[in-house]
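Checklist before submission:
- one chain only
- standard amino acids only
- sequence pasted in full

Submission:
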Amino acid sequence: MSCPITDESVLAIARHCPLLENLYLGYDRTLMGGPTTWHFTDTSIIELASRCARLRHLELHSEHITDESIIALARNCSDLRSLKLQCPMTDAGLIPLGLGCTLLHTLDLKTPRVTDAGIGVLSGLCHFTLYYNNHVTLAGITELIRHSPNLWHLFTLRCGNLEHDRTQARIADLIDSNLNKQRGLAEVITAS
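Returned file contents:
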C-alpha cells in the first residue's frame, strides 16, 4: 500500500530538491489497480516546475492536473528528456511542450483529448507512445514522423483512428522511410 501523494508532499519536494533530475508522481492505475492515490494538483506541479528546472525524467499520473501544469513544465524545464503523462491535458498543453522541450526524446501520453494539432508540433522524438485516444489520425502521426527522423519506437494502444490495417501499414511505411530504418533500427508497434 502506498502513501497518497498530495500537494503538500510535492511542494516539499519542490522546496527542498532544486537539483532534482528524476521524479515519478502518482501511479498508473491501469497497471496497479486499487484506489487512486493522486491528490496533487496544478498548484504543486507549477511550483515544482518553477523550482526544479533541472528535471530530465518525469512521470505524472493525475486526473487533477491540467494544461496549466504542462505549460509550466514547458516554460521552466527545457532539459526534459523523457516524459510520461497520464492526465486530462489537451493541445493547449502539448503544443507549448513540443515547442519548449526540444531535448525531449521519449514521450508517453495517456490522454484522450490531444489531437493532430498537438502531435504535429512534436519533433526530435526517438520513442513515442499514445494510449486511449480517438482524436489523433494518420495526419498527426505523419507530421510526428516527419519531424522526428530518429523515431524508432512508435506504440499506440486503443487509438481508434490508428487501428485500421491500412493505417498501420502506412505508418510502417513512413517509419521505413526514416533514417533509422536504413540502419535497421526502426520499429513500429500498434496494438488494439
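Reviewer check: The chain has nine helices and nine strands.
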